[in-house]
Amino acid sequence: MMRSAFSRFLLCSFVACAALLSVAAGLRAADPAPKADESGWILPDAKSAGTGWHLRLKDARAEAAKDDKPILILFTGPDWSSASKKFESSILRSKEYAASIRPAVVGLYIQHFVKTDAPEEQVSANQSLRKSLSVPAVYPCTVVLASDGKKILGIIPGVPDKKDYLQQVSNLTGIKLAE
What we know:
Number of strands: 4
Order of helices and strands: HHHEHHEHEEH
Largest sheet: 4 strands, mixed
Strand content: 5-15%
Strand order of the largest sheet: 2-1-3-4
């Protein structure tokens, strides 16, 4: 009798562990891996940040010089910063941003990862850029550069109100906001 109770206990324990493992595997499978470009650098999440962002300053500078547009650099913590997520959903995905700012700037998306393993080259390049521009450790933080990609026109830390943010970018760049 003792043996049969122990056997049932082991069987129940085994079934419970198997069930927990399958649930955990399902949760991991539900989180899609971040998308990467051809070099393995992690791309911005198009759902929250939109599309058309550069990951490298040299690419943004080339486009900005060609099109004579200012560079809008977004320093963000997409995998951990609730303020960054709020900024992306309330401002970057807004109709006002899409109508006025997005077409008039070259976007550079600089990600500071905490929970995601990113290529060391991407992490190092992003940290170097932040340091070279003396960007405060505030997430998100927007830096606006002139079309030469060198002169800093302004820095907007944190998550201002949408109207205030759009007005600040407009004032720094001369972009006329859509009515």
